[in-house]
Amino acid sequence: MEKRALIAIALSVVLLVAWQMFFTPSAPPPAPPGERPAGAPSPGPPGALAPPAAPSAGEASAVVARPPAAASPAVPGPGAEVVTPLYRIAFGRDGAATEWDLRYRGTKALGVGKPLGPLAVVVSRPGRPPEAVPLKPDAERLELGSQRPTGTLTFSGATTDGLRIEKRLRFKASSYRIEAELRAQGKRP
Question: Which residue, 59, 94, 111, 156, is most buried by CB atoms nearer than 10 A?
Answer without folding.
Answer: 94
